[in-house]
Design goal:
Modified residues (4-aspartylphosphate): 263
CATH architecture of the largest domain: 3-Layer(aba) Sandwich
Helix content: 25-40%
Structural class: alpha/beta
Domain Response regulatory: 211-333
Protein name: Response regulatory domain-containing protein
Number of helices: 12
CATH superfamily of the largest domain: Response regulator
Radius of gyration: 23 Å
CATH topology of the largest domain: Rossmann fold
InterPro entries: CheY-like_superfamily (IPR011006), Sig_transdc_resp-reg_receiver (IPR001789)
Keywords: Phosphoprotein
Length: 355
């Protein structure tokens, strides 16, 4: 039977001064992967979304070794955390776990921690996906990520998030049961993750003056996406081909649609031509680019290049994954900096990139 963990979890609503746990006489011991296990863990979780924040704290708490004291502090506000980590007497943490969408914010936080002597032993754990990791590395190329990973200063943990993903960092000996990924838990985890996706998206975009135009000729695919948008209270119009799409877009004021999700292969007018015509219309009217996202079973080879040439902002692979769709909708319908123009897809190997 596991001994109860010596732990403390601070709510993001706490107004108390954050004080990492003090452990006297503790010595770091070697872990199986060659790193050192500290005598205590003091962890700061930065995540603006409530349910994601709570899930992240829960996952970490389930993988921390029961014989090591620990404290997890969760905060939603990045600026507040930067103040906590800065100043003449900064609060020191063994780990700072980052769940942020904005690459600029992640890069700024990395610079603050990696350049600070008081935080010379702090590990930055970035919850991300392959696309965002690439953008982080392109945005902050001055860092030697291979060396930072080897020294355990910067670690990337990939979504979908689950306790076993944190085990390599917090429980390399796999002492806790949740540190081992078990197939029988996958269905339950998937259901929890999907519920979390719905709740987070509904909180950010639901019942607001936002409207999606879904351009899709396949009735089944159309119903799947519409059902998802309905669950999170986002308004949607539909078109079954590019002709109907452009008619609807051109009949409304620019910005009437917050985003266009457009299938590439349709009768009468395909997605490439549809996107080109909308971009031409925007240029003629000197309007900003509407976010237009391609829907395709694959974006390899010439498909990706044709999306770039047509002027798409991004793409979603089919069949549509709700988590991926949710991330794209939040990226374009609730950007961290609304004054920034949306980036278009770039040629592979170029800088800036899509998604």
């Amino acid at each position: 039977m596991e001994a109860p963990a010596i732990s403390s979890v601070q709510s993001e609503k706490s107004g108390d001064t954050i004080k990492p746990l003090q452990v006297s006489g503790g010595l770091a011991v070697a872990s199986p992967d060659g790193g050192l296990v500290p005598p205590m863990y003091s962890i700061l979780v930065i995540c603006p979304l409530r349910y994601s924040r709570e899930a992240t704290v829960q996952h970490i708490d389930q993988t921390l070794p029961s014989n090591i004291p620990h404290q997890i502090t969760a905060r939603e506000n990045l600026l507040e955390c930067q103040k906590i980590l800065g100043g003449d007497d900064p609060v020191r943490f063994t780990h700072v776990v980052v769940v942020l969408q904005d690459v600029d914010e992640i890069a700024a936080l990395m610079d603050q921690i990696l350049s600070s002597q008081p935080h010379s032993l702090t590990s930055i754990v970035i919850i991300t996906d392959l696309s965002q990791r690439k953008r982080i590395m392109e945005h902050a190329p001055k860092h030697d990520y291979e060396l930072l990973s080897k020294e355990r200063r910067v670690r990337f943990v990939f979504k979908p998030l689950k306790p076993s993903r944190f085990a390599v960092i917090f429980d390399p000996r796999k002492e806790r049961e949740m540190s081992t990924d078990r197939n029988q838990d996958s269905a339950q985890t998937m259901a929890i993750n999907q519920k979390q996706v719905f709740e987070d998206l509904k909180k950010r975009l639901g019942n607001r003056d936002k409207r999606v135009l879904l351009v899709e000729d396949n009735r089944v695919n159309q119903m799947v996406v519409l059902k998802f948008l309905g669950k999170v209270d986002i308004k949607a119009d539909t078109a079954v081909d590019g002709v109907i799409c452009t008619n609807k877009v051109f009949a409304q004021p620019h910005g009437y649609y917050s985003i266009i999700l457009c299938d590439l292969h349709m009768p009468n007018k395909d997605g490439y031509q549809t996107c080109k015509e909308i971009r031409k219309w925007e240029k003629k009217n000197k309007s900003a680019h509407l976010p237009i996202v391609a829907l395709s079973a694959n974006v390899l080879g010439d498909v990706h290049q044709k999306c770039v040439e047509a002027g798409f902002n991004s793409y979603i692979t089919k069949p549509v994954d709700f988590k991926e769709l949710s991330q794209v909708l939040m990226q374009f319908m609730d950007p961290s900096d609304p004054s920034k123009p949306f980036e278009l897809m770039k040629k592979k190997g170029g800088h800036g990139g899509h998604r």
